[in-house]
Amino acid sequence: MVFSSLTFLYLFFPACLLLYFVLPWSKAKNAVLIVASVFFYAWGEPVYVLLMIAAALLNYAFGLLLDQFRGTKYAKPILIVSIIADLAALVFFKYAGFLAGIVNGIFGNVLSVPKLALPIGISFYTFQTMSYTIDVYRGNVKKQTSFWRFLLYVSLFPQLIAGPIVRYAEIEPQLEKRETTVDDVFYGALRFFLGLGKKVLIANYAGKAATLLLEEASAMTVAGTWFGMILFAFQIYFDFSGYSDMAIGMGRIFGFRYAENFNLPYTARSITEFWRKWHISLSTFFRDYVYIPLGGNRKHQMLNLLVVWALTGLWHGASWNFLFWGLYFCLLLILEKRFLPQIEKIPMLLRRIGTLVLVLIGWVIFYFTDLAQMGAAFSAMFGGAPLCTQSVAITMLNNLPLLLVCVIGSTSLPRRIGLGLDHLCALGSPEQSYLKQVFFAIGIFLMEFAILLLSTVSLVGSSYNPFLYFRF
Questions:
Q1: CA 20 to 30 Å from 253, out of 23, 88, 110, 202?
Q2: pTM, rounded to two decimals
Q3: Phi and psi dihedrals of 404, rounded to 5?
Q4: Contact 378, 364 (CB under 8 A)
Q5: Nearest to 327 by CA among 339, 338, 340, 316
Q6: Nearest-CA neighbor of 222 among 389, 353, 359, 372?
Q7: Residue 300 a catalytic site member
């Protein structure tokens, strides 16, 4: 972990906010965020912080070169060199051991397998720096003349270590000058605390229960494996969407507006729709920088999909199961495109259920890095194990309230309740409306305090607090 969660909540973040809002100058505010972000990363990665700064410096220089040689024969070679440099660092730290293992499997032990700690967030900030140089080359953004503003873009701590992937074009004007209103603080704090609750009060407990049901292949049952995978599906959703909410909220407080990264993906009616709602920043990155440049729907569509989804799988980790996971979704998307007219005739409810089942099967592939364990899980899910045992039944029964919370929380119901209350506050005379808005704001504050209090108690009382996307 970069910081312990409590150190972040009660020391680092409040101190950063205090310094940021005390200083009146935009350059000073940027300096506070740069120092805080570098310190935040260096706390857990004292060596690899230099790698992150070097990546920022290198891509800043490439941006200047691409702007200088725009429209000449040198522009494309410069872009290619910049992409190779970015990917070389990512491949070396993330995939060297995996690739060495493949070579050794084919030719014998001809290579030593390096054991390297994965720099936290390298997949995210590498894609961000690549998007900048590519967009400068395309003429979509102007070069950044200040290295410090570019370093702020790369290192900004709310989304540095676990996304979402923020493109330079999205926040270019905000790097130089931005404003934070009272509404921004109110909305940002709400998003932050909702994300904190999703992560600590839902995802952690779902993950802990899922681990109990899935980690021992010999103890798997049909009911327990299905129940455990459902809990894992909710764990990874509330974990990552919760972190995205926190990043969006913190960014909003500092004046940055990040795009949404999730949009109720478990309400999707097709696999295509699911991937328009899940990890949106990654899906759009591959669409705009890989799929469309390869030809998109115009030529070699199936090959383009294969490349994109193989890369999507491997982006999540250097393991065969992630590659298979990407190819699994590639196959589903190809089948959907092929049989779309027939699929659209299926009743909506059945389409939703079918999509959820297919996604859940995908999460089995994603969860088990050991292929033998994966096979045991699939065998158990489809009848190759006892139906249930007493201990599994007790675990499932104890977690039914949690499952209900997960189901409700992954639908639009909480959002509609919030919008309904907000609309209700606007009704009536101006005096009545103002009074209702005051009570509504007090209610939001009390809810945020309750989430903070319960999250603190949970973090103090449990050592189980993984951020799943730290490892990607």
A1: 202
A2: 0.92
A3: -65, -45
A4: yes
A5: 316
A6: 389
A7: no
Q: Is the pLDDT of residue 351 over 60?
A: yes
CA-derived radius of gyration, the chain: 24
Q: What are phi and psi of 109, to 5 degrees?
A: -80, 75
Weakest-pLDDT range from 185-199, 209-223, 238-252 = 209-223
- Looking at residue 141, the DSSP 8-state letter turns out to be S
The dihedral through the CA atoms of 198, 204, 208, 210 has a sign that is positive
Whole-angstrom CA distances from 115 to 108, 124, 463 are 18, 21, 26
Tokens of residue 231, six digits: 């809990």
Q: Do the beta carbons of residue 310 and residue 294 sit within 8 Å? A: no
What is residue 256's three-state secondary structure? coil
Confidence of residue 1 (pLDDT cuts 50, 70, 90): very low
Whole-angstrom distance, CA of residue 164 vs CA of residue 152: 15
* pLDDT at residue number 463: 65
Tokens, residue 332: 């589903």
Q: What would the pLDDT profile of 170-190 be if each residue is shown by its tens digit? A: 999 999 888 899 999 999 999
What is the C-alpha separation between 423 and 189, in angstroms, rounded? 20
Contact 172, 430 (CB under 8 A): no
Q: How confident is the model at residue 116 (pLDDT cuts 50, 70, 90)?
A: confident
Helix ranges restricted to H, 368-429:
371-381, 390-398, 400-409, 413-425
Chain position carrying tokens 């977690």: 399
Instruction: Round to whole Å and give the CA distance between 458 and 462.
Output: 6
Contact criterion met (CB below 8 Å) for 320 and 372: no
Please tell me the distance from the alpha carbon of residue 91 to that of residue 100, in angstroms, as a whole number: 11
- The chain-wide mean pLDDT, for the chain, equals 90
- Plot region of 177 (φ>0 → left; ψ -120 to 50 → alpha; else → beta): beta
Residue of 397 and 430 predicted with greater confidence: 397
Q: b vs e for 346-385, b when ≥16 Cβ sit within 10 Å of the residue's Cβ?
A: eeeeebbeebbebbbebbbbbbbeeeebbebbeebbeeeb
Which single residue is written with the structure tokens 């032990």? 109
User: Could you tell me how many helices (H) and strands (E) the chain has, helices first?
Assistant: 24, 0
Task: Please pick, among 279, 300, 316, 423, the residue that the annotation labels catalytic.
Answer: 316
For residue 43, the model assigns a pLDDT of: 85
Helix (H) or strand (E) holding 275: helix 271-277
- Per the CB < 8 A criterion, the answer to whether 405 and 202 are in contact is yes
Euclidean distance between CA atoms 156 and 37, whole angstroms: 6
The structure tokens 């989430």 sit at: 451
Confidence of residue 470 (pLDDT cuts 50, 70, 90): low
Query: Is the predicted pLDDT of residue 107 greater than 90, yes or no?
Result: no
Interatomic CA distance for residues 70 and 92, integer angstroms: 30
